[in-house]
Amino acid sequence: MLHPLLALVSVVLPAFAVAPQDAKAPAVDPAKQKALDDVAAAIQADIERLRGEQFKHSVPVKLADKATLIEYLSAREALETKPEREVFKEECAKLLGLVPATMDVKAATHAFLQSQVGGFYDPPTKTFYVMDSFDGELARVIMSHEFVHALDDQLYDLDGTAKKLGDDTDQLLAFWSVCEGSGTYTMTQWMIANAAKLDRESLMEFQKLGVAGMEDLPPMIWKPMLAAYTCGQTFVDKSTPKKKRAKKGEDAPATPADEKPAPTYVAQLARAFRAPPRSTEQVLHPEKYWDPEQKDEPKRITFDASAPPAGWRVLGEDTLGELGLALLTTPLAERKGIDGNDLMALATLTYTNKAAKGWGGDRLILLGRGDDRLLQLVTVWDTEADAKEFHAAVEGVLPLADAASSAPRLVPVRKSVATRAEDPQSVVIELAWARDPKSLPDAAVAGLAWSVK
Q1: Residue 252 within any structural domain of the chain
Q2: 123: domain range?
Q3: In this structure, is residue 249 part of a structural domain?
Q4: How many structural domains is the chain composed of?
Q5: Is residue 212 located within the same domain as residue 86?
Q6: 225 and 336 part of one domain
Q7: Which is higher by pLDDT, 69 or 400?
Q8: Position 114 in a domain
Q9: Are residues 34 and 119 in the same domain?
């Protein structure tokens, strides 16, 4: 079951992405459009049966070409984020060594998406676009995923929820995982129900396309996308308890008379959309969201940025989360792409590690003074042992020399990984770079004060 899912990991865009108001689709022959509409109507009916919920209205379907997709990506980006926010995120990734110093992250991500996308759902116009290079059974599989996004959008206003989450990357990825987990869960049911009708050879070819290009990209670009689908599906699947099966020759276990009925998948999914997981930790460890006794909400870290050092200004803040810190603590030699044809490598991918487990919260802030940069990352952990494990791991991988080359004219002037004596469950990272090291003494780049709630 896992392999067909991986084939679709990057062929669809996040359902909650802001899109252009009515993308310009290429002209389509009326007969072809009629056939497309008929297939779409049939699959929407399938989704209603599988989910046990009804569409409020039918979802229009249009064909899109590459030019339409490029327009969509550009318009979405312009509406979804500000240029300075993208610069901030790319600078942080390079300073932490998560992407190569010379990489144009925006261009690399766009190229990757353009090679993967088979369709996209546009919340503002409530329209689904299928790429004109996909037809037949492949188009039907894509529809079985994207129409779930359309149903969820009609029921839960995905765009509105995403906007409320602001610029918190970790929280947004957790919500994206609910969206893609929902789509992948029901798509899998649809594929099983239609297995006899699906062309295996076409699906295998599609699988190669679905993960193409990852071998040339750092994990920071492709791994969160994979996690949203694979971990997201596991997250929604864990929403309902599984009935214990009787052993061969034994009667099924009796249900206690006073036991409350288990919540339905539909009810639990509604809960996840209305009160989304607040961290990737809760997605990676579903019991920390679904189980009341194990629920683990993240601690919120706040910087006192009211009076930054003289001449400095705040360039941005963000939260990396367990998934992000797992990427950060991955040894440099292992920060490689992955061959999409290597099914074993895909099936055994992990999205966290020992150093990132036990995450309690984190917050990153980047300060600038001209070309000079000060990056401060505060992390808090469930136990002192968790903090020590992260401390040791991050000290071993922080690529100060490589990070310095991300800004060719800058020289590293400070690297600090420390734990406060009064707060042994925290680890604070401070990194600084300057054009002229003599102009930036260590005392001038002390981090900001912070607090935990």
Answers
A1: no
A2: 2-237
A3: no
A4: 2
A5: yes
A6: no
A7: 69
A8: yes
A9: yes
Shared domain check, 448 and 319: yes
pLDDT, position 109: 85
| Residue 112 token pair | 């990757």
Q: pLDDT of 326-345, one tens digit each?
A: 999 998 888 888 887 777 88
188-214 per-position pLDDT tens digit: 999 999 988 888 776 776 566 556 678
Domain boundary among 237, 262, 293: 237
More confident residue, 380 or 446: 380
Indicate the residue type of 453.
Answer: K
Do 19 and 152 belong together in one domain? yes
Least confident of 95-104, 263-272, 443-452: 443-452
The answer as to whether 353 is a domain residue is: yes
The overall pTM is greater than 0.85: yes
